[in-house]
Each structure stands twice: as structure tokens, then as C-alpha cells.
Amino acid sequence: MITFSNVSLIYPHSTKTVLEDLSFQIEEGEMVLIMGETGSGKSSLLRLINGLVPHHTGGILAGDIEVDGISTRSVKPGALAHLVGIVGQNPIEGFVTDIVEEELAFSMEALNVAPDVMRKRVEEVLDLLSLNSLRNRSIATLSGGEQQRVAIGAALVMQPKVLVLDEPTSALDPIAAEEVLSILHRLVHDLSVTVILAEHRLERVIQFVDRIIYIEGNGETSIGSADEILKNSDLVPPIITLARALNLSEIGTSVREVRRHTDAIRNRDYREFIEPKKSNSPAILIDRISHSYGDKKALNNVSATFHHGEIVAIMGRNGAGKSTLLHSIVGLHSPASGNVSVNGQDPTRLTGAVRRRSIGYVPQEPSDLLFASSVHDECDQADSDNQLAEGSTAALLHRLVPAISLHAHPNDLSEGQRLALVLSIVLAANPEVLVLDEPTRGLDYRAKAIFGAALKEYASHFNRPVLLATHDVELVAEISDRVLFLAEGDIVADGTTLDVLLSSPAFAPQVAKVMAPKPWLTVSDVVEALGENS
Amino acid sequence: MKKSLHPLTLWVSAILLAIGVVALDNALIALAIVGAVATLVYIRRDGSPWHRSFSLSLRIGATILAIRTLVGILIGVPIPGTVLFRIPLLDLPSWMPGIRVGGAVTLERLTSSLHEGVIIATMIALFGAATSLTSPHKLLRVTPSFIYEIGVTLVIATSLFPQLATSARRIRTAQKLRGMENARLRSIAIPLLEESLSRSLQLAAAMDARGYGISRRRSRYRPQPWLMRDNTIVLFALALSLVMVTR
Questions:
Q1: How many interchain CB pairs under 8 A, A with B?
Q2: Is the pTM of this model over 0.90?
Q3: For the CA atoms of chain B, what is the radius of gyration?
Q4: What are the E-state strand segments in A220-366?
Q5: Low-confidence residues of chain A: pLDDT under 50
Q6: pLDDT greater than 90 at residue B47
Q7: Class of domain A282-497
Q8: Are domains A2-235 and A282-497 of this chain identical in fold?
Q9: Hey, which residues 173-232 in chain B have their CB within 8 Å of chain A?
């Protein structure tokens, strides 16, 4: 279906080739995952398939790409619209109309499909993706998972033979992600659609894919079945790390497989691990706050206390009120009713240097805080803002990501490097409280590990609270002490990470699913419990 | 949901009214029209992202009015009449004849500057109203695809304006939370421009990838009919404009 022959790609004004001498073939009805570190060229590879690269971005392409016998070199991306459907990383930015139904019809209108055919196909897609109840809704009011489904639907109405998706689940909560993936799985199996996707959260997708294309940092590319690639790769989901740590003879990609291999281990005795008792001097007090946007209630009489030295994860489905709660805590708005106190202060009244020292906040779009033209200037600015010796922020940054170039433009950094930069700037002020909104979107495992370690160190070393809103259960399992679970503006669960994550099947991390009913969340939990025993 | 007008109705009306306002050249009537348009925008508000562009256009209009008036008072040919106050005359070198900076400020001079400013601000407000009441996406769908490039440009231009307003607010709050109270223009403008540019490119890429402009003919999934209401509004604007032009 798709043939890459000796493809190399280089962007204008760049000295580094993005892809080098890449050759592979993808058959009809295959599901292929493209993995690699952030900034390794996954998106470029995806866009090569329908010719957006280089037709739309510029750049020099060597070699040839054929999709169903058509060379992408010779035609514009639009001419492949009936053959290749593409769903971008951020579907909302690619929507061209306002209403779900119109969005689905857009491509067909552009290609002058007869009205009765259009109607029929729109109905089919609405049924296939269970979008029928949303057909007249305005796209802007949909949740993240719904938008993703509309974007997939808009590609499917053309009845494409190939579907290309860039990080389809990165912004979704675990349940919405599962929904999207099961739809993809069905498309592959029922309709023989060829699906190619890029994704960082391997734990969500590897059980579905047939083959993996791994773009390594040094430009090398390897292609093979999931088992083959993951056996030797550095980027692996927890389930593989577990298999390696336990020295299993075979690795498995799904919970079911690994459970079979670990039967004996689960039946062994182990020593109970006792959580060290944390301090409980309260740092942030939330007293019965409510907030609504228009008619929609976002928070409903929420009360909570966060303690010093505690890492608290705030979880919940898209639109459950996580961001609103964080905004109230950092003082972005004062809640309609109720009180918030951060170390005795009202967060809405903080300004300037006092604010920097009291609350460190990393917003959902970390780059909102960046404006200088180089990493060096950003660090200098943070130093002078906080009256630190020159180079302090840069030193902090180098501890997080040693390889970063101080002369680079913040825009050219990879996702992980940019987050590290923003985190260093925020931490340079030595804030009393650290609050982060969805920090790990688009991070690969390595960047996530560094980031998690930094948060842990901050919390334990300075004995300060860290709050983060996130969908990333694996991250939560690794770093957080406590989980607060929100649904429709109410706290529905509040307890230790172990209790909350184990009690919800959808939000349980992979290791916990494999090891159930044993109360282990992460690979290190397992190793520790078993190691001390044997 | 309020029933929507044809996407071209308000744009055509805005153009007609603008022609009328320029031809009539009467500041009071121009202000009355702005008032009427503002009421219309208020009544038909729907909370869409582009809806905010009207208030933004009013603000831009007010800024232009202020600048125009200031420049009118300071520089230019004096118009004789009732002297309001005097500001010191600046001595300019002899090679700049005919230009005066400062001097007597007459009532006539002030009103004529204000007048021109109001007319310009009215034009901006009229188009601001049309943008804020018409979904840019709907506008795209009625654009014939033989003007493909214009269509893409139109969508990007009209979606950029409201999106700038949203992003600017988000970035400003983020920076306030970094403790930067009086954020410099540069610190907002740079992330803002970067974001807008990359969004526009993404939108254009998405349209390209979905076959926009490939076929010279387009079919309509659910055609937006040109109804009696649209006729009424355009005819009303046409009549108003004709009255203003022929006066």
C-alpha cells in the first residue's frame, strides 16, 4: 500500500537530515506505530505519506514515496485526499467548519461528491464512530475525545485506504484514549484500512500494532514486529521494563500475555511495604469552593488540604474541573464562593516577586512563559528577576537536560527541553508551592523520567507541596503520594496513590494490571517487594 | 440556537453602509450607525470565539480617533475660527516651509480632526461587526473554489483576528502568574505571533490535505439558502446607502 524507497529528508536552513535512506513497505490493513524521541522526525514521516511534506513545508526530499501506486512527488496533497486521511496532533486546529456534520462533509464538498452520496457517507460515519448524538453540535463545545473522533470521522468519509494519525491519544484521558484506539482497531480489522500512527504513550498502543518503525536519535531507523523492536529499544513502556527487571524469557505487549508469564511471581510471598509517614502540616487549604462558566458548573463545593512535602496528582476525565481547581489555587480567578489559602495568603492578591516566591505555576502551554530569543536570555531574565547570581538558572537547567544549547531559540527546542526550561525558570524563584497543568503531554519516556525525578527532589528536599493535573497514570504511579479524583466538579476519590489507582480499572497503571491483586504500581515497587523477599 | 443569516449578508451590508458613510461624510450619522451596529452585535451575541472581534475593532477605532485628533491639533494648516487655546509654536528650520507644529487650536480645527477620525473608526467598526457576526468557516464554504487562494487567505485572516484576542489573554495571565505585572509588549507579542503563525499554517495544511481547491467545482452538503431575511437586510442597507450617497 505504501512504499518508501531510499527516502531522505532535509529541511531548508537546516544542516541535519531528518530522515536518512529510509526504505520500507506497509501492506494493506496493517497497523504500524512510529516511535522515537521527541523531535526525531515522527511527524515529518507521517506528513510525507500524503505529501504535506515537502509540498507544504519546503525541504528537499530524496528517494520516492508511493501510496497505492501514486508517487507523492508528482501530485499535491489534496489530490491524495480520497486515498489518505490525516488526523493532526491537535484536531481543533485543523477543523475548518463549526458544526460536526459540516466538518464531516467538508472534504467531500471540496471534491465535488454528489449530494446524495455525501448524505449516505456522513450517516455511515456517524454510526461507525457513534457520533450520531453530536451531529448538530458546535465543534468548539466538544470534549477532547469527541473532537478526536470527529477528526477521524472527517478523514473516514472519503473512505481512504490509509489513515494517518499524529499522537491521537496524547491529550485524552485513559477512557477516551481507549475508545479511540478500539475504533482504530476495528477499522483495521473490519475495513482493512491501513493505519499509521505516532504515539509516545506506548503502553496505550503497542498491544494493537502489527509493526513498529523506530526512529532512533542518531538517525538510524529500524523496522520490525513489536517484540523485535522493543527487545532492544531504549524507549519502552512499563510492561517491557517489568519483563526485563524480572528476567522473563519472553516479553509481551499486552497485559494478558505478561500475566501468563508472571503467574509464578504473583503467587510468591512478599514483604509488605510500609509507606513512610509524611508530615501533615497543611500548606494549601481549599474551603468549599465553587465555580462555574456560564451555566456549566466546573467546581461544586470542593474542599481539600494539601500538605508540605506531598506530591498530589489531580486526575479525572477531560472537563472534570481539574484546570479550574488549579486556576483557583494559583489565583488566576477568585472562585465564585469559598476560600483558598496558600501558606496563609490569598493567591489572587499576590503580585510580582512575592508571587514568584509563593507559587510556581507551569501552564498547560509552557511556551506562554517564554519570549526571549534564546535559552541564554531566558535564563538571564530569570536570574535578574530573582536576584540570583548570573548563571544560576542555566545551571539548574543543565542539571535537568545537560545537552541543551544555550544559544538555541526556545522555539527550536524539543517538547521535553522546553518544559525543562520553563521548569527551571519557575524553580529559580524557589517557590513555596509548585503547580503544574498537564506537564507531560508530548514527552517521551526518557524526558518524563528526568522530569519526574526533578519534581520528587523538589518536594522532598525542600519539603514543599507539588500539585499536578494529569492524565498520565504511569507518571502518577511513579511520583505522586496522593491522588485526588474529580468528576463533574466533585471530588469522588481522595487517598493514597495506591488506593485510588488500584480501585479504578480504567486508571490503573499497566504494572498494577499485570500484578493484580498484588498492590504494586510500578516496576520498582515490584522489584523492591520481591527483592527483599528472596 | 438563533437562526443564522447567509454568511455573505452582513458582509455585503457592511460594505454598502461603509460606502454610504464615506459619501455622506457626517460624523453624527456615522456614530448613530455605530450605535445601531453595536446593538445588533449585542443582541446576536453567541459566545463564539470570533464574537470578541467587535470590541477589539471598537478599541482599534478609538485609538485611531485619538491619534488622528492629536495629530490634527499639533500638525497642519491652521483653520481660522474661534480660538480655544494656544500651544507654543515650534520653530522649524526654513527648509520645511508650510509645516507648522503647535500654534493656535481653533474649534474648527478640532472638530474637523475629530470628524475624520470618527469616519475612519466607523468603517473599522462596521467590518468588525461583520467579522464578529459571521463565522469565518461558513464564509469559506460559500466562497467559490476558483478563488481558492483568496478563500484560504480569507479564512486565515478572519480566524486570526479573534484567535489573537484569545491567545493574548491566555499569555498575559500566564505571564502575570510568573510575576510579571507590567509585561512588556515584546514579551506578549513574540509568543503571540509565533502561535498565530503556526496555527494559520496548520489550518492551511489541513485544508490542503482534505482536498480543498482540487476540484474546480464544489458540491454542497447542506446548502445555506439565501432567504427572504437576507434580501430584506441587504435591500435595507442598499436603500440606506443610496440615501446617504445621493444626499
A1: 155
A2: no
A3: 22
A4: 221-225, 282-293, 296-307, 311-316, 337-342, 359-362
A5: 534
A6: no
A7: alpha beta
A8: yes
A9: 173-175, 177-181, 186-188, 190-191, 194-195, 199, 201-215, 217-222
